[in-house]
UniProtKB/TrEMBL annotation:
Pfam families: Esterase. It comes from the Eukaryota. SUPFAM superfamilies: alpha/beta-Hydrolases. The active site is at S151, D227, H262. GO terms for molecular function: carboxylic ester hydrolase activity; S-formylglutathione hydrolase activity. Its EC number is 3.1.2.12. It is found in: Cytoplasm. It catalyses: S-formylglutathione + H2O = formate + glutathione + H(+). Serine hydrolase involved in the detoxification of formaldehyde. GO terms for cellular component: cytosol. Keywords: Cytoplasm, Hydrolase, Serine esterase. This is S-formylglutathione hydrolase.
Length: 285
């Protein structure tokens, strides 16, 4: 098997596997968690919801605090939790700030040195990782996959969905960085990973990408009105919502949840809704 199993944890009738493998895309070891629901088998394959985590996180944060598996288990839905960046490197400036470098890949393929050789998370998530997962776990259904994420991971979920029509059945996001070319987090990351060309940045901005989307979006977004990052204009979901509306894109629900913050209390509160949203489009409801 391509993966090393570092832990197997029984939970909600299924199993959470803590896995690692050597990635040919990033050139590093990569960690991930995989929840396999009860009853999944090669003859009864489980569809998969991918969850992309936010800045500073590892696959363990949401596995332990999000409780998504509690909602996924009775539906027969598998969950895949990738890491937020390559690990084990010591690139110049990689570990100096919490919002750039380690655990802050923004789920793109970097083009600027020294990041270009290793920070290739878009290719890793859309090609290498799913290929390995479905090859090694025949109880998972490669034809039924949805994607979701929180904050930076919400940005990743929206952009990967919009860049790859047909790859995912639905998309959802908690407090996504929705217009990164217009916020400090995105400007910092894109300058570092991509350089100064703002036209190039737009290729990784959900608000820009949705302008060219065809058909229903199958999307759900939750944002807490008590989220300090929302108040600081780091998230800008209203820009994404307006761009989708102006482009005539339907099938998007954006909900502003009164008083909720950016934390796992927020994620876990609305986790059932996001799991059910994916399950609907994956044919489980």
């Amino acid at each position: 098997m391509a993966f090393t199993t570092n832990a197997t944890i029984n939970t909600m009738g299924g199993k959470l596997l803590k896995l690692s493998h050597q990635s040919s895309t990033t050139g590093t070891a990569m960690n991930l968690n995989l929840f396999i629901p009860p009853g999944a088998s090669s003859s009864a394959k489980a569809p998969v919801l991918i969850y992309l985590s936010g800045l500073t996180c590892t696959p363990d944060n949401v596995s332990e605090k999000g409780f998504l598996h509690a909602h996924a288990a009775p539906l027969g839905l598998a969950l895949l939790f990738p890491d937020t960046s390559p690990r084990g490197l010591d690139l110049p400036g990689e570990h100096e700030s919490w919002d750039f470098g380690s655990a802050a890949s923004f789920y793109i393929d970097a083009s600027r040195e020294p990041w270009a050789a290793h920070y290739r998370m878009q290719s890793y998530l859309t090609t290498e990782l799913p290929g390995l997962v479905f090859q090694n776990f025949p109880e998972l259904d490669s034809g039924r996959v949805s994607i979701s994420g929180h904050s930076m991971g919400g940005h990743g979920a929206l952009t990967l969905y919009l860049k790859n029509p047909g790859m995912y059945k639905s998309v959802s996001a908690w407090a996504p960085i929705s217009n990164p070319t217009q916020c400090p987090w995105g400007e910092k990351a894109f300058t570092g990973y991509l350089g100064e060309d703002r036209e190039e940045w737009k290729k990784h901005d959900a608000t820009e990408l949705v302008k060219g989307w065809k058909g229903p979006l199958n999307g759900l977004i939750d944002v807490g009105t008590g989220d300090n990052f929302y108040k600081q204009k780091q998230l800008l979901p209203e820009n994404f919502e307006k761009a989708a509306k102006d482009a005539g894109v339907d099938g998007l629900e954006v909900r502003y949840q009164e008083g909720y913050d950016h934390s796992y209390y927020f994620i876990s509160t609305f986790g059932a809704d996001h799991v059910k949203h994916a399950a609907k489009f994956l044919g489980l409801l």
